């Protein structure tokens, strides 16, 4: 038997229309016909219309449950697209005139695409399918970011969504398929960070099928916080009898199911990573869901073009803005004596301590609301859109050598804190670089600042980035750090290096605002990797002071023009005598601070 044709991109992104259709058809000028053509292709790929739609129903779960709410959710996603097409999304970085729709994916190595080429990962499969609709019919640039980083938990990533996913994101995601168990607490905190810390209150995509986390999506839909979130499955949605058939009898989208996209033996080809055709399946299921919203959006744009009035399509401006007042969390919150500030930085603060809320987490009135304070983050992890660690570094860093993967010596570490990677990360990246001419295309890397006692003191300056203080600061007490800063969190690289590795809560001396910190506590309710807590809550001393800073750049209007351009100075020194480069140096991967 002749081996069936297949489309597996090796050097360029995959085309989304079957090769035979490419030969017979050109892109339609009629968007109705083009949408139907894509749907027909999906049916063909996955066993016919009935089988494909049944699989899609298993594979995409919406937060909305009733049919009327599902239609409302699709319209909500469509409104996001219409806002992009009409230039309603203000973007200071790219200019108000630029029209774009941004889908940003976060997650683990599954989303990165390990075992395959980076461009074969499901985010880019989705992009290739739906991009023509944005460019041809909406005059919108579709930007898809795969900002996943292999082997990291959802926190501290979730505190740094503007850094990794971008504040301009219309849609964000996380994949929970591997390392974070069945609990929903971390996911709810991640969702709340997206709602409160990203300007467009982006749609949430959950790559997962755990009921506890899907229930969180349902709760936030019920409280009208996020109307259009979805949970997406993986290869488990395919009927086993279809995959049991001989290769040539399977639907085309399930053929070569056990083949990787990258050459055999490439790093990451483990049984827990999806192979190339499974990435295609995930991308196609996402595309079918977005296609429903695209169809509604194009209809809305036609109506607006005909009647010239936004009211005719029922769009509400406030439904697409960030929220800082949220319902009570549905998760069980940490209750230990050191957990109060950790709860604040993860879930927010209850506005009225003596109030009560309904059991489903929906706010009944203002007395039941929680307030989300401003979170700032700096990190050297890649990909990093903005907010690099260098922005807050004052002194104490060794001169960069230019090659991130070069082996660093004691001489490097003796000259200051070193921008470096861990041994496992270095070895893995070197293996990847040897595949083909240009490696596998991955852009993630766990860069961090590493130090030992001989490295000296690392000095940081953390700017107060909001909210604006509307009152005057005329007293000495107004310069107390607690007047501006709520919480300080330092995180290390997620790696295990043996019993003698640096322990942040024991081996660091930290001075904040001129006062030595008395208490450094591991955060155990989030930010865990392979049962290791990688983030620490650094208690800000009551006597700590902020310093007034002068900004050379033009005032952005974020801070009041009087005296509230302030920063909190932080000094970090390794004091553990057993800490060496070989045993495992101390590392600073993320600096996170909460302000009020």
Provide a count of the helices.
17
Strand residues, percent: 15-25%
Strand order of the largest sheet: 1-6-5-4-2-3
Poorly predicted runs are 1-27, 92-96, 355-364, 551-563
The radius of gyration computed from the alpha-carbon positions, rounded to a whole number of angstroms, is 25 Å
Overall pLDDT, averaged?
87
Give the % helix: 25-40%
Query: Structural class of the helices, strands and pairings?
Result: alpha+beta
- Shape estimate: globular
Give the distance, in angstroms, between the N- and C-terminal Cα atoms: 69 Å
Strands, count: 25
The biggest sheet amounts to: 6 strands, mixed
Describe this structure as you would to a colleague.
- Helix content is 29%, strand content 17%.
- It is α+β, with helices and mostly antiparallel strands.
- The strands form 6 sheets. A 6-stranded mixed sheet has the order 1-6-5-4-2-3, with helices on both faces. Strands 11, 14, 16, 17, 22 and 23 form a 6-stranded antiparallel sheet that branches.
- The radius of gyration is 25 Å and the shape is globular.
- Residues 1-27, 92-96, 355-364 and 551-563 have low confidence and may be disordered.
